Amino acid sequence: MARRRTVTPRRAGRLLCWLCLGAFLMVWMAVVLITLDHHSRQLGVAHTERVVKQYIVREEEAIVRGHRIIAGKVQGALGLKRDDDDDDGAAREMPEEHAVDDFDDDDDDDAGDDDAARADDDDAAAARKAARDDDDDGAARPADRAARPPRAPKRPGGAAADRPPSFEEFLEQEGVDRDVPPNRAVPLVERPEPNREPPAGVVDHGILFYDDAAFRSESVAAMLAPYARTRGGGSCEADFGNGLIDRWRDARKTYCAPRSDGSDPSRPPSRIDCFLLMQTGHAGHGDNLCEATNVRLNFADFADGATATRQFERYVAARHAEWEAHVSYREGALAADCDADPELWQAKHFPGWNAHWADAFARVDDLECDVWEDAPTLVVERDTFANLFHDSEDFVNAFIALAVLRWSTADLQILLTDIYPEGPFWDMWSRVFRGTRPPLTAWQIGQKYGAKNVCFKKVAIGILGAAAPTTLHTSNTRCKASSVVRAYSDFVIRGLGLQGAARYAAPDGDPKDVVVTFLARRSSSEWPEKRFCDSETSFFDCAKLQHLGVRGLGRTIKNDAEVVRALKSLETRSFANGARVRFRDVDYNLLSFEDQIKVDLDTDVMVGPHGAGLLHNIFMPDRGHLVELGIDGSSGLRHFHNLATWQGRAYTGGPMANPVPVDRLLAVVAAAVAGLDLSKPY
Q1: Which residues constitute the domain of residue 58?
Q2: At what angle do helices 442-449 and 306-317 cross, to 10 degrees?
Q3: Could you tell me which residue, 397 or 74, shows the higher pLDDT?
Q4: Is the pLDDT assigned to residue 152 strictly greater than 70?
Q5: Could you point out which of 72, 382, 474, 486 has its C-alpha 20 to 30 Å from the C-alpha of 240?
Q6: Domain end among 78, 101, 121
Q7: Which of 614, 616, 488, 466 is nearest to 230 (CA)?
Q8: Range from 386-390, 538-542, 549-553, 639-643 carrying the lowest mean pLDDT
Q9: Cα 566-570-575 angle, rounded to 5 deg
Q10: Is 120 part of any domain?
């Protein structure tokens, strides 16, 4: 007969402890389930539901194992027999990652997005030098902007790697985006509404429907926020959506701390905060944006003319190398009454020519201001001035900077502190980003301020152009319909006042009318340096550019006239979807920038060889299709495949002989027309 064990006070205490622990675990499980339900509601995608269910199952198993252990302890405390059938605690096997094949035709749906969410096709670009798209002016591109550092392991090794992943790590492993930061978790009912409701069926074009006053007064962040999440899973939203704006904001650190408390009106506290962000696929120490309050700038380097003139002569001697278009500022050009953090204030944290600002910094006890500027000011050093793709790097980064800083364009002052002239895309600075104050080039800055000490209540040093997320081009992106790219496109259209020309504004046209536009790539009569030089109002001295002859371009189609005739024959062809084709042969070099965008807004299928002009595809209607001709070895460059994908456009492209085989081209373009969704005109 088994002897009954006496329950002593000591054993009762132990039993009470184990029962309390069990109760705690039950409460913890309830909190986990509530939290997971919150995350599931917030993420709201099928992939997340599957992942959360896996996580719940795993946590339930952990709780069961914990309860079995507790039960064993309780049985031991009571002197009862313990079962030996505990769960072995083996880790739950996670789904394997699937590779996504490279493709040329992107006219697909989202059926494969779940697999793509777990794919990482960018790994193929690791530690690889990217051949940057050459400028139309033939200038060489810096070689240091495209190498990607090796991908870091998802979890550290050693003992820590044996612990179960947290909820955040679990979501990261499964390629699920989180939309948690409080500065973007805004209920739909609280988001800013456009002044006019878009027509039925028009999605994600809210910026086009702001009136003039609201477009200028509303912050760029508020205009961007309602745009739909970037599709593709993984890090897509964090790299190309509102999540990218959040990442920039989260990277904010104080680089120069104020030395005064503001109690003395004659000594306003200076402060410089910077956002150093390592973007996916970017090399170096990160990309940077800085915001400063109560600091002093001195533009004497532009006032005397000698410094900028010498720099222009170097630019000409270097055959228009863009790194020679930037002045190395003298010490004290940037001054503030603050203490710079020596660990942060280093040139390596200011990529490219922005490092000149780091070298020019000086701490002062008295700002000694000759002029005070109260308007928010964005300082930009342009990458170039006459190549739409590379100019757009600066435009996109200016848009991102305004969103990060929550600035509007209402009273914005743009200072362009490179030595370039205005250029063919000046409308972007003078109309799209302009509020009440005109943008100033370096020459105009020198004329306005001379050698005076100019103090700014609020000034930002912009993001280096090459750091734009839209520069990635060494492999096909999996990320579709980027909210940043889509909102930026609408921002440009609205800023130029062309919203009325967009089909979204008047969607009553016949959807069967299809426009095919051929972007001709033909040699121009003049180099842009010579065309836009101005010895009176810029540092580009025309006398030093007279040696430039006819501007030749690479990747021109050898049988251009034959291609045009073949494409025009589409006007007489019948299509099963009822499309009626109207063909246009357009040389954008002969049009103003505004007229170029007007052509884009009325183009359904855009056809052309690889070149900067294909960036225009992001302004096409939603149903648009880009056909890129990869002639002369350019098919490996994925700039415009990626831009079309980020904008949500269909894409067809690949290697193409030169002269172009017209029958093959005609078949490709006809297929693009036949594949258009003609249920609506946009």
Answers
A1: 9-78
A2: 170
A3: 397
A4: no
A5: 382
A6: 78
A7: 488
A8: 549-553
A9: 145
A10: no
> Is residue 13 domain-resident?
yes
pLDDT in tens, 280-326: 888 888 999 999 999 999 999 999 888 888 999 999 998 888 888 99
Task: Tell me: do 378 and 516 sit in the same domain.
Answer: no
Query: What pTM did the predictor assign?
Result: 0.74
CATH, residue 613: 3.40.50.2300
Residue 497, domain member (yes or no): no
Q: Which H or E run contains 336?
A: strand 334-336
Same domain for 430 and 560, yes or no, is no
Determine phi and psi for 472, rounding to 5 degrees.
-65, 125
pLDDT classification of 184: cutoffs 50, 70, 90 = very low
**Which pLDDT value is given to residue 10?**
65
Is 379 in the same domain as 291?
A: yes
440 with 570, same domain: the answer is no
Is the pLDDT assigned to residue 333 strictly greater than 50? yes
Whether residues 561 and 444 share a domain: the answer is no
Domain count, the chain: 3
CA angle, 538 as apex, 534 and 543 as ends, to 5°? 45
Q: In this prediction, what percent of the chain has a pLDDT beyond 90?
A: 59
For residue 672, the SS3 value is: helix
Q: What is the 3-state secondary structure (H, E, C) of 99-138?
A: CCCCCCCCCCCCCCHHHHHCCCHHHHHECCCCCCCCCCCC
Which whole number is the average pLDDT over 582-586? 98
Buried/exposed code over 35-65 (b: 16+ C-beta within 10 A; e: otherwise) = ebeebbeebebebbeebbeebbebbeebbee
Pair 342, 276: CB distance under 8 Å? no
Q: Are residues 395 and 275 in the same domain?
A: yes
465 & 580 share domain: no
State pLDDT tens for residues 86-106.
333 333 332 333 233 333 444
Let me know if residue 631 belongs to a domain: yes
DSSP lists the bridge partners of residue 362 as 335
Confidence of residue 179 (pLDDT cuts 50, 70, 90): very low
Rounded to whole angstroms, the Cα distance separating 217 from 20 reads: 58
* Mean of per-residue pLDDT scores for the chain: 79
Cα(271)–Cα(248) distance, integer angstroms: 18
Contact of 186 with 373, CB cutoff 8 Å: no
Domain shared by 399 and 276, yes or no: yes
pLDDT score for 133? 38
- What φ, ψ does residue 210 adopt, rounded to 5°? -80, 140
Dihedral of the alpha carbons of 481, 485, 489, 495, in degrees to the nearest 10? 140
**Distance of alpha carbon 198 from the chain centroid:** 25
